[in-house]
Amino acid sequence: MDNFNINRRHFLKGATAALVVSALGVDGLDILHSSKPWRVALIGTGWYGKSDLFRLIQVAPVEVVALCDVDKNQLQAAGLLVSKRQKSGKMPRLYVDHQKMLSENQFDIILIGTPDHWHALQTIEALKAGAHVYVQKPVSVDVLEGESMLAAARKYKRTVQVGLQRRSTPHLVEAKKNIVDAGLLGKISHVEMFCYYHMRNSANPPEQPIPDFFDYERWTGPAPMLPYRGLPHRSWRSFMEYGNGIMGDMGVHMFDAARWMLNLGWPTKIYSTGGIYSSNPGISNITDTQTAIFEYDQLTCVWQHRTWGEASDPQYPWGYKIYGEKGTLSCSVMQYDFVPYGDGKKIHQDVVYEKEKFPEDLTEKDIELHTAPATRVHMLNFLKSIEDGSLPHADIEEGHISTACCILANLSMKTGRPLRYDPIRRIILNDENATLWLQRPYRPTWVHPEPNQP
After folding, report:
1. Helix (H) or strand (E) holding 293
2. Which of these, 24, 56, 215, 373, has the minimum number of CB atoms within 10 Å of its CB?
3. Using one digit for the tens of pLDDT, what is the confidence trace for 144-159?
């Protein structure tokens, strides 16, 4: 299918040239010529759903056919914004029910920006409807959801790109090529990954009436029905019922980046410990302190988060550090630093911005300016993979492995013992009790997807 038209000369300017080449390769630019736009829908029109959609609009001709959200006010506002941003100026069709949206339209691409507990069902339904999918991380809230998503993507022969855009972040792509792959670190035996943001919500709001513009039943979907305490936009991240805590929110990004840089697959063993140690707990039930160890052959990857105190390195409050026999590489969304042992040359690189090329970034509400170039590359790579059948940078299998390992870390913390996952048999080795937790129970009337029946 012919799909998008980019002015090659305009696109290959300055730092953007590196972005395109890293996403597509020089020859890959030739496929970006066509007159037919992609038919696109977005499910979940909150903060990052709109951000992902606007990055796609910036790099490819698309027609946003429909939007879906259970908050009618948010949905209407998103529709107006999209009508101003897309070339046609058309208002997308607006839906509260994503299943109705899928049944009444045909799409090339569906973006999913809903809370984590909806990712699996909506991805699989979109794949069955014939669409390619861009889904936010983490891909699932339990391990077998992720296995089912992977099975569905392969069965229906559709591309699924996961929003783990560190794999498309220009300065990190450079660090992988020029530091890690070039051998400047020598033998690598240890990785530290961390987040020290004070991001845990410790509020304790009272139970409230559900407003008529918000479908709380549909928002909850397969997850447990908790008392309604106000619009859950963003605040849902503080509840394990809807996600996987900071381990699955922030940790999945850095663990995935470390796996990508070092070409790592499944770890041999995962162990984690933590809890609510320092915060006023409020109604939030995610940890404020947690450590997880992912063991590989002659290599350990260790995650730590704290939502209190100071970062051990103020320049790197969220990131990862790779330790080799010849030096250390520190990486974050904002920069990287290579420090060799001895008298070698230090190397520093900052994040790439594209403020001049995409001035609309400067007026977009809540945009993460430092992430916008990476997401644009991620979208271009997604489209290229659809075109040529290659696996995208953050293919669903890679997204599933990184997500599942974070889920297993939380499960290890819950059970109090290390876990060894067998992805072939889909069991925790020698642990029947922990194996039962690979699938969370769904609310009645909702059916959990099965890997063997995608």
Report:
1. strand 289-296
2. 215
3. 999 999 999 999 999 9
